[in-house]
Amino acid sequence: MNALSLLVAATLSAGTPLALAGLGLLVNERAGVLNLGAEGLMLIAAVAGFATAFHTGSEWLAFAAGAGAGALVAAVFGWLVIWLNTNQYATGLAVSLFGSGFSAFVGIDYVGKRLEDTPVHGVPGLRDVPVLGPALFQQHPMVYVAIALALAVAWFFYRTRAGLVLRAVGESPVSAHALGYPVRGIRLAAVVAGGALCGVAGAYLSVVYTPLWVEGMVSGRGWIALALTVFATWRPARILLGAYLFGGVTMLQLHLQASGVQFPPQFMSMLPYVSTVVVLVLISRNPLWIRLNMPASLGKPFFPGA
């Protein structure tokens, strides 16, 4: 039971950055913008968050710095694809490559440095409950924030007028424009908000999950978060489920290695990415289901007056 409790706790922690980044990309895609630069956004935010925490000692300032860095880079991406109508796929890949190189350059002075130990987090009165306490109630507050954000995004999409307008822009920007809505402004706001969430995810990795900076430390999580939106068929609650599923696979391979399971470590390290590919292949077997759930204008440019 103790081993299971530790595995559940590690799964929640590992799934949190995936959930945050996945929710950010979901907001982008619901507005009709496909951002393939999540990996680069998270790397830039990770180094920004680590540097802030290292110099100030404040986790929350680090999260703010990560969100700001992610939002800034996402705003540049949004300006390029929304106003200059550059190709969304190529621009997103460029952002990902830029983020990888820029974060490595900026983070040279922080390699090998660690943050000071943080106090024990958790829900008072519940974190000491046997089995359930260590598994569910000794988490960093950002774990609970991610869960609350998933509920908030679902409420925003399906219970507010603003959410309805954003989804309408993703489905038919021409119709939304004809009704007088500023399609480009709405899309830019969605891209910036999504970038901020990716930034918080990156800062979580370098400040909480592994409180140090290592070049390329995001390790493909941005791409997994991108795959999560398809896995979740563009539903916020399913983003959360998928994030914990992939987080659990990641932690399972580490626990198996620690338990002495005789498998090549390279194979164990492949598990999260292999599971991602398998899930996407299974989902893609039903293209009609994908078409019915995917925003109709995803990845398509919009030209006002065209």
Automatic annotation (TrEMBL):
Keyword ATP-binding: no
Cell location: Cell membrane
Pfam family, one: BPD_transp_2
Chief localisation class: membrane
Keyword Secreted: no
Bilayer topology term: Multi-pass membrane protein
TM ranges: 31-53, 60-83, 89-111, 142-158, 188-210, 222-246, 266-284
Keywords: Cell membrane, Membrane, Transmembrane, Transmembrane helix
Protein name: ABC transporter permease
